[in-house]
Every structure is written in structure tokens, then in C-alpha cells.
Amino acid sequence: MSFMQPSPVKYACSCGILNPINKLFFCRHCPKLRCGFCVCHEIESHFCSNCLENIPSTEARHKKNCCANCFDCPCCQHTLTPRAVTVPVVRKTEEPKESKEKKEGETGEDATAVAPPTPASSKPSAVPTTKKMYYLSCVSCRWTTRDVGIPDQGVATGTWPDNECLYQARFNALVEYFQAVVLQEKQEKLEFMRRKAPKQHKFPSLTDRTGLTASLIRRQIGWNDKSIPKAKPVITPAEATAEVEGLPADIFTEQLNLRNVTTIAQRHSQPADQPTAVGSLYPQRRSLWIKRSLRCRQCEHNLIKPEYHPTSIKYRIQLFASYHVPEVVMVRCEQPPTAGKSNAILLKFTNPTMYDMTIRLLTAVPLEDPLMADEVNRIKEEAISSSPLLRGVTLARQNSTREVKREVNDVSNAEIVPLESEFVLSQRDDSKEFDEYVQLPTEEPKFIVWRKGNKVLIRLEFTPATDVPVSTDVVLGFFMQYTYVNTVTNAPEKKEPTTHALHSRVFITAGAAEQKAN
Amino acid sequence: VFTHCRIKIMPKAVVCEESNLRGDITFSAGCVVHPSATVIAEAGPIIIGENCIIEEYATIAHRLVPDGEWDNTNILSIGHHNVFEVGCNVEAARIGDKNVFESKCYVGRGVTVSSGCVVGAGIKMNTGQLLPENTVVYGAQGLQREAIDKQGSQNLQIDFLRKVLPNYHHLRKPNYDPKKARSVV
Fold first, then answer.
1. Predicted confidence band at A166 (pLDDT cuts at 50, 70, 90)?
2. Cα separation of B102 and B180, whole Å?
3. Is the confidence metric ipTM above 0.90 for this complex?
4. Which of A68, A69, A314, A398 has a C-alpha 20 to 30 A away from that of A298?
5. What is the value of pTM for the model shown?
């Protein structure tokens, strides 16, 4: 399996996009292939990638999705680590001696790391109470908080001063104003709806019968309105000026020291003030990362659900395609692909499931499985016949994230010779790898080169089209029909596992077409 | 053929027996040379300043120009308190004081390193240039920046090494040579 290299084998997802199998998921209830574009992404939890601390979502929103303890270096965007400096606090007026120590810990938050050796020459007259002061330093570019003048802190985390943005007050005022405006508009809309469509209660009130309202009567007798008119939110609008302060006179004469000018990446990583001088770089709080869960848009079932804890990389629900769909790996092309010349490709098929699988390679869409069509219809009916309370929710969700059907682009430019028969892949049996390989004396179709456990190597003949220009990729396409045993049951009554014949479209990039040798 | 092979080790310098030293090399007082370090003086003598640390698999070379020959006056002078970390390959023309050459960096022959510089891990400096003082070379693209804060002192480390290395390795004996004038460049 080629790691870190794009896979030449691509599957067509149910939404039409081609993806290698490691980017695909398999919905067991549909049952269809899904990719990252046709599923719903939902945020499960927030965590900091450096200190691996889980942050609840409300706190994350309050802190603007930033970690409280971890900082990024403004110079190279790596993580800053706190480093300790032992400063003796002496009563007499002596110069404090600084002995720097290196901290070996990864997070550096553990303040009780290496014990510092006492300063070599401690005068017995003074009382050397030592204190640890911390500064942040970057291991990759050796930038420290002392470079910009931030004073050392007595505690490793938590007390680093925030760089207040110049416009923070104005920004907060604007946010409050717009929140008030939104609230007011919502209330006005509610009022309007109430006036236009009054609800019919069982017991009509005086107002309903006679049309008199309390506010009418109050106006008649001369009293003020009962409810004080709400104060409209108001804000001073920003004033636009055409005056810009002029360029300093020495900008043309003074030598530019490029080491003091920030790079564009450094400026963009500090979007609040975007400093132009290196002396104004400030450590930025590290952004939080999220854990996502994926949900099929059609049947609303979870495809991927990760573990809650940030240190765990396992999943509670993992419906990756490579656990359910047979994996096709291109081993090699027998000869370099040339336009018009017949060739053969070796493909390795692997059966990841616990059941034997029958595979056929077809050149045309196979007939729809009647059993599967039934199931799909049943799922649709179930969704519709659910209780009216839920109906509004599900329909609303379906409307907003509708499945986009795309036609699969047939990018193949080679003709394949379909295999004579179907072949069987035995189930995945982990215990078999310890048994000795026993050659079964059964008749194998001729296109099977070898078979081992749940893997099979197939020889497939193909001919690239004659009009393929040199050095474009030759792509083979076929429909792979495989049997899938569905062990999950959605219906209330218990059923045995059903077998479906599913099919996926596979495209294989065989390589760049070479010059035809004459 | 190294007919001028002469290694002078000042007192208090700790030079392991298993280091590869070729040519005319002078280790000033307090230097620490780990085993498997390589110092090659092909084109001329090398004088290494006080309290330098040369770690394992570090290579300091004074290479010959393609058609050159040994020249006794072509001295590569390395300053004090330099650190050559594991696996670095330094062929610079001149090196100042208090520099740090991080692991697996390569400093080519045209580069002149002044004082207080840090050449980051894995950085390859092939072009000839003068590295100004207190420059840090970092990152995949070899960006340079000026370090305002001085780099940490290696005194603790070097004291520790001087104490511990003799317990585990054979050392070359210092051949006392205090009167040799070190040419200051």
C-alpha cells in the first residue's frame, strides 16, 4: 500500500465524486458509499492540540476558541514553551544572579521539573530565597517573550498579559448593538405574528368578544400607555474621513532594515493589529481543534463518532469504507500503457468483512437489486411515518442539507475485457495467517493469479483507446458488484442478516501513456 | 597524506580517544570533544577556542579548494563557547564566539559566521555570505531573524560533560602548550 502517495484507484461515491477508499465511508443503513462532501459534519468537542485539554463548548465560545494556557510563537507559529529562570530574591541590595536552565518537558507546564543547583557563590550574609520566573520561548526559531519586552511572570501559565486590540471597545459596542437590534427585530416579528394570527382559545375573553383592549380604554380616559416603549438601541455611527496622515519624511532616505520588518505570514497570524515591526510581535493564543462526527444526510445515522477524550484516537462508531467495501489495489501494469496496444493489469482484491464475498466486474450498470430497492423504499416510508413532532425536525433538516446528485464523470479511456465469471473472496479470518498455506484443489478461473486468505490477485486485460495522447493518464473504469451481508437491522422486528448485491464504480489510473514504439 | 598531523590539547580540554582528528588542530582550554566527532584540517590548521562543545558525528572541516594545497598560514579560527550539535557539518571560512550549530545543519565554505548566531536544525547554508551577529536561521525555508535575547549559556552542560565523559571514555592526554600564540583574526 503506498503511504503518502495518491492512490491510483478511485471509487465513485454516491454523490458522484471520485475518492480513494481511505476517504470514503459506508452507510450501513442506506447502504451506500459516502464521502466527506455528502455527509453532515457536526462538532463533538473542542480541545487544545498542545495541552490536550478538553474545553466545553460554551467556555470555548466565551474564550473565542482559544486555549488559555498555550501560545503560538508569532515568528514561526510553533508552540511556545515556558522556561524557568532562577532569580534569587535577596533582601540586601545585591545584583540578582541569573542562572538559566533548560526545561526538558514537552509541555513545560510542570513547574517542578529539574531541581536547580544553588548559585555557586551565595554569600552567607544574605538570605538567598530563590524564586522562579518564567518566560516563553520558541524551540524552533528561538524567539522569546523578552525579545519584545514582556516581563517574566512568576507562574508558568495563566498570567500572561493579553495584547489588547486598539479597537476592542468599539468592537464590543458594535457587537452589543447588533445583538440588541437582532433581539428587537425578533420581538417585533413575534408581535406582528401575534396580531395577524391570534390564537383561538377555548374561553373567549372580553377583548375577543367586544374588540375592546386595555390600551384602547387607557387612551380614552387619558392615561399613558401601560408598557413603556422600549428604548431603541442606538450607536454612534463610524465617521469616515478622507484625511490620512502623511508619510514620514525619512521614509525615502532612511535605510530599510529588513530584519525589523515582519513577513506577511507573521502579520496575518496576528490579525488584530498586524504589526509591521518585529518589535510589536506578540504571542498569540493557540486555536482550539475540534473532534467531528459525521452523519449520513439521507438516513440520519452516524457514520463516524469519535471518542470524547482528546488523547484517544479511537472511535465509538467507525463505518469506514475499507471495513465494508472490497479494497482494490493496483499491483502493476504488465507493460507500459500505449495507445491502442492491448495490455493487462494486475489488481489485488481484499475482502474486509466476516462473510464470503462474490465479486463480479462489469462494464455496464448492473440491474438494481430488487431486495435493496425494497429496503430503500421502506426507509423512506419510515422516515415519513414517524411522529408529527419529529417530522418537522427531520424534514427541515432534509431541506437544508439536500443530497446533491451528480452524474459520475466517466473518465475512463480504455476498454476492458470483462472477466469470464465471478469469483469468490473468502471471509477475513485473522487466525488463518498462522496456519500453513494449503493449496485448495478446486478449479480456479484462469484470471486468478494467486489467492491467499481473503486476498486475490486478478489479471484484467484492457486496451487503451487509440486516440489517447502521449503522457496523459490511461484510466480504466468498471463496475464492481459485490455481495454484502447487512448485519444491522433498522426494523422493529428481528430479522436475520440479509445479503445484498451492491455495486460501486471504480476507476484506476494505470499510468501515463507512452510513446508507441514502431 | 597528512604529514602535518599534530594535535595540541590544552589543559582542561576533554578530547575523547575515539574522535577522528586529522591535521594540525589546537583545542584550547575547556573544550569538550565527544567520541565519533570529526575534525579535519585539510587546507590549513584549525584552532578551536575555549569551552567549545563538539558533539557526536559533528564534522568540522577545513577543506581544500579543488586545486589547493596545504597552507600553514591558512588558519581556520573558531571562537569561544561554540556548540556543534550532533550530526552538524561545518565547513565555514571563519566562526566567531557563542554560536550554536544545531543538529544536522550544513554550513558551506563561503559562509562566515560572526558571534551569537544560531543555525537551526537541518538548515543547509550553501551560498557564501556573512551572517551578521545574533542571527537565527530557522525554518524550512531558512529564514533569518535577529535574536535580541542572548542564547542560554552552556556552562552547566559543559561542566557536566567534563565530569562525566572521563568516566566512560578514554581521553587523549593534554600536551601542555600555553605559550603558543593564537592568531586573532
1. confident
2. 31
3. no
4. A314
5. 0.72
